[in-house]
Amino acid sequence: MLGIHELWLFVLSGLLLNITPGPDTAYILGRSIQLGWRGGAAAVFGICSGCFVHVFAAAIGLSALLMASSTAFAILKLAGAAYLLFTGIQMLLARSGPIADVAVQGGATSLASVFWQGALTNALNPKVALFFLAFLPQFVDVTSEHKTLAFLLLGAIFIFNGMLWCLAIAAFAARAASRIRQSEGLIGWINRALGGLFIYLGIRVAMLETR
Predict the structure, then answer these.
(1) For residue 139, what is the DSSP state?
(2) How distant, in Å, are the alpha carbons of 57, 62, 124 from that of 209?
(3) pTM
(4) Which of 21, 26, 40, 138 is deepest in the core (most CB within 10 A)?
């Protein structure tokens, strides 16, 4: 179908990759503890939206351009690093407060901001672009006339499976933290942890090389 081969292996590999803990998992856990189920879900949908950007990019060849053009890679890399560093510093400086008060405020802890932080973190990460470029073609016949559709379908499957897993993580974290989210000190530490994570990711993205 569409030149896709060994779909079962793709699904299995994707599931294993999705359940491997990483920065996305840490971000979802932090937001779920901080803002509850809705905050965790907003983080999940944001991350998935960012991944779709890379799936479309891989499908139309933009990821290949990033790999071939050091200038294009450098521009995206620096833009992503700058955004992550800015967000991390913003979180570190955020005012602590009970989650009932924090959740209704604008800024870094609004649901819209949580969504866009997750989306932009992925969309501006060239490492994610190169991952999809390297992973998806392994399961598409090079002679297929429908490679673009095959990439889109495989990407959608990968993201959908990841979304289900991440929503389960968000629900678990929100439920487990339901009795302690009112703590001002805890919210402050969560903000610092998330801020430190974003700063770390920003530095890590800035240090990525094309080869």
Answers:
(1) G
(2) 19, 17, 15
(3) 0.69
(4) 40
